[in-house]
Task: inverse folding
């Protein structure tokens, strides 16, 4: 190491430290350069707000996919959000820490299950249940929401647990000393103090749900149309890219990259909002 | 009407507790379902023979090889970058605008969905750099994807090394880099390995990125420029195209067991480190 010297090492490490940021910029650059020119040539309004997606005759309107992505994501939030926050509150406030230390890593295993396995179980188990009891084709907004709601649980649980644990113990003690029960303390003090972290966990989870691809392809049905009920089959932005990328060429391929640009921008906005919420929490302490 | 506090307390306990149990039950169901259907198919023969007739018969040997090669390549590329970033952030600089920018980039990269990584890998490595659908393109793209995980866990691991260790090293006249190399990194190693394991697990379960960048060739790869198919992709193709449910379950069971093993190893290492510290 004498060859390079201390200053050299610092320089090299500084360069390496920028690798993640450079990767991010490189990704943004390549996705944009492939997708943006198409968007402007085709017309932003026609691309984003037209409902006709017929690549074979040169019609590329992704409005149904945008609406479907939002529906499936909101459905996932409605299922995974409350369930995850409830789990996080229970594990931090209602059971001994030793139990939490065992159960938290177990819930994180949910994140390790491959998304194709979630998708497959959704098709084999969930879709027939929906078809049999509620009607419709089974592969639907509802099926997608349930599967995604489960997939985002680990994100919601772990980040919520971290932010609830960051609430100073003295807050709880003050409330308990006034004679409040654990539950009263939780909903009047702890959760309020941890609010921004919990919101951040839900926003990050939203990004996960919006970006999930393989499971959604398998369970949401993939019809290009604006859903009128939770039992309708839909195609999300991610599914649109993955389904057609294999054979798309020319304009069609550029349109898929443009779909990627829309997704990329939506996700970056969510990430930045979540980042701000987390920073607010840190700043307050 | 006012509900007495003791009742709301009991009600909250039951409702929140059931939510937690439901989460655990879903996990148990998924693992149980896959293992129950897949274990009967699973055997050494299944793992170590070539597939026949598009995967309708035979085993999954080339997919086992692909599932090992891609993650290994990805972590080999991402670990030096991730650990280097972590060392720079903790040992070589103070919190400043630069470190905030680096952290911001890492956080954003972590939030990017795999389909975007797939599109990027396809247009950059496969098309622009002309690497084609190959293990190399796939490994490089996966390395980008797991970089944030490795940066974060390594940073935690490096931060957790007690300050006094460094002070002793400096007081003996060691330079900063000597201290990092001989004191900090060896002590942070188990934590760093945890991050690498989590990166391996992420790469193993990934499907969209692999299809877009490494393709889905069924044959045994003979060079880094060959296309390959991982177990996750094989499972997807078998299940989606209805080629063979039985072999799909066998592949899924192998995949789930592999991922559980890698995750458990990672947690065990992390737990060992934490137990030693306290």
Result:
């Amino acid at each position: 190491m004498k060859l390079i010297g201390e200053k050299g090492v610092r320089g090299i490490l500084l360069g390496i430290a920028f690798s993640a940021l450079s990767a991010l910029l490189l990704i943004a650059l390549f996705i944009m350069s492939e997708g943006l020119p198409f968007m402007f040539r085709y017309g932003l309004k026609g691309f984003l707000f037209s409902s006709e997606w017929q690549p074979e005759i040169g019609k590329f309107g992704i409005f149904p996919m945008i609406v479907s992505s939002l529906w499936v994501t909101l459905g996932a939030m409605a299922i995974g959000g409350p369930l995850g926050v409830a789990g996080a509150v229970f594990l931090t406030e209602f059971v001994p820490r030793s139990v939490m230390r065992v159960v938290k890593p177990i819930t994180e295993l949910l994140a390790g299950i491959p998304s194709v396995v979630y998708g497959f179980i959704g098709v084999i188990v969930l879709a027939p249940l929906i078809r049999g009891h509620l009607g419709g084709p089974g592969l639907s907004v509802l099926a997608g929401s349930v599967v995604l709601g489960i997939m985002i649980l680990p994100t919601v649980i772990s980040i919520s647990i971290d932010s609830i644990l960051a609430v100073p113990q003295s807050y709880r003690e003050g409330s308990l000393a006034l004679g409040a029960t654990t539950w009263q303390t939780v909903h009047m003090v702890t959760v309020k103090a941890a609010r921004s972290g919990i919101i951040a966990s839900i926003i990050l989870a939203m990004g996960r749900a919006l970006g999930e691809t393989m499971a959604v392809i398998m369970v949401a049905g993939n019809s290009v149309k604006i859903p009128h009920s939770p039992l309708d089959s839909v195609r999300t932005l991610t599914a649109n890219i993955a389904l057609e990328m294999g054979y798309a060429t020319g304009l069609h391929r550029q349109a898929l990259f443009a779909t990627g640009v829309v997704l990329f921008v939506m996700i970056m906005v969510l990430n930045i909002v979540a980042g701000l919420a987390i920073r607010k929490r840190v700043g307050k302490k | 009407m006012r509900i007495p506090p003791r009742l709301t307390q009991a009600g909250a306990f039951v409702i929140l507790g059931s939510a937690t149990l439901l989460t655990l039950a879903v996990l148990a169901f998924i693992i149980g379902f896959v293992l129950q259907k897949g274990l009967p198919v699973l055997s050494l023969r299944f793992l170590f023979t070539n597939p026949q007739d598009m995967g309708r018969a035979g085993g999954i040997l080339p997919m086992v090889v692909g599932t090992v090669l891609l993650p290994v390549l990805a972590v080999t590329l991402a670990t030096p970058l991730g650990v280097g970033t972590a060392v720079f952030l903790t040992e070589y600089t103070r919190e400043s605008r630069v470190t905030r920018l680096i952290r911001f980039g890492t956080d954003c990269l972590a939030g990017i969905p795999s389909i975007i990584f797939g599109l990027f890998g396809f247009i950059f490595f496969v098309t622009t750099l002309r690497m084609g659908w190959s293990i190399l393109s796939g490994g490089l793209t996966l390395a980008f994807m797991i970089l944030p995980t490795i940066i974060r866990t390594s940073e935690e691991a490096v931060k957790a090394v007690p300050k006094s260790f460094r002070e002793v090293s400096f007081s003996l006249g060691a330079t900063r880099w000597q201290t990092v190399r001989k004191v900090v990194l060896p002590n942070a190693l188990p934590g760093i390995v945890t991050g690498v394991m989590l990166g391996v697990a992420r790469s193993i379960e990934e499907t969209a990125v692999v299809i877009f960048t490494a393709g889905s060739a069924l044959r045994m790869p003979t060079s880094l420029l060959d296309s390959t198919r991982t177990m996750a992709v094989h499972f997807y193709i078998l299940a989606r195209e209805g080629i063979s449910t039985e072999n799909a379950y066998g592949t899924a069971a192998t995949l789930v067991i592999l991922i559980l093993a890698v995750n458990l190893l990672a947690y065990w290492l992390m737990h060992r480190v934490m137990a030693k510290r306290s």
Observations:
- The domain at 44-277 of chain B is CATH 1.10.3720.10 (MetI-like fold).
- The two ends of chain B are 49 Å apart (CA to CA).
